[in-house]
Amino acid sequence: MATIGSTQLAAVLPQWHWRSRATAWADAAAAEVFLAFEQVTLAELPGTAELRLHQAGGDRSGVTMLADLLDQGFVLLSEEPDRELVLGRVGQFWRAGGAAAVQVDGRRAFLAFAEPGYAKAAFALRAQPLDRGTMISVESRVAATEDHTRREFNRYWLVGSWASPAGHHQLLDTVRRRASDPARST
């Protein structure tokens, strides 16, 4: 199990078995980056939209990514306005349709959850203001609650998880475009 960093994400999931991270620079203030993130729709993320069409059984292209994550059972675990947003979810993501999601009621329940047969996933968006613009990053971490689950989840992670590097880069490109062009953020 790996560990890294002193961020809000590190506070809620300091050790993980799987991790995906991507960064990009945006010619915008951190507040504009977060506003852009809140407005990104699944239609702007074709791979994610297609995956969610099959999982949710309906067209969700007009739904924002943030709303979709919350609809999937992610909960807010931590927020530093215009700095970092961390969402988390507990479930059996490798099962058809993301079966057996566990509703956790906030950060304390997420941290305490340890029932065998599940994985804890956390997603973070971070913004670091620079002299000019903002460095933005997205990171996903997943930790299995025990070894058998870790082995089961390995196949899912390797084949195509929701936290894929390609998906992270596509999200960052969209956020960067929206944040850097105020006309798009309406």
Would you mind describing this structure in some detail?
The structure is a single chain. The chain has seven helices and seven strands; from the N terminus they run E-H-E-E-H-H-H-E-E-H-E-E-H-H. The protein starts with a strand and ends in a 6-residue tail after the last helix. A five-stranded antiparallel β-sheet has the order 3-7-6-5-4. A two-stranded antiparallel ribbon has the order 1-2. It is 37% helix and 26% strand. The mean pLDDT is 84. With 186 residues, it is of the alpha+beta class. Strand 6 and strand 7 (134-144) form a beta hairpin. The chain has one domain (2-180): Alpha-D-Glucose-1,6-Bisphosphate, Chain A, domain 4 (2-Layer Sandwich).
The string of secondary-structure elements, in order, is EHEEHHHEEHEEHH
Domain unit count: 1
Task: Trace the largest sheet across and list its strands.
Answer: 3-7-6-5-4
Which structural class do you get from the secondary structure elements?
alpha+beta
- Spatial separation of the terminal alpha carbons: 42 Å
Q: State the shape.
A: globular
The total of beta strands comes to 7
Give a short account of the largest sheet: 5 strands, antiparallel
**What is the annotated CATH architecture?**
2-Layer Sandwich
What is the CATH class?
A: Alpha Beta
As residue ranges, the low-confidence spans are none
Strand content: 25-35%
What would the average pLDDT be, to the nearest integer? 84
Q: Give the helix tally.
A: 7
- Helical content stands at 25-40%
Roughly how many Å is the radius of gyration? 16 Å
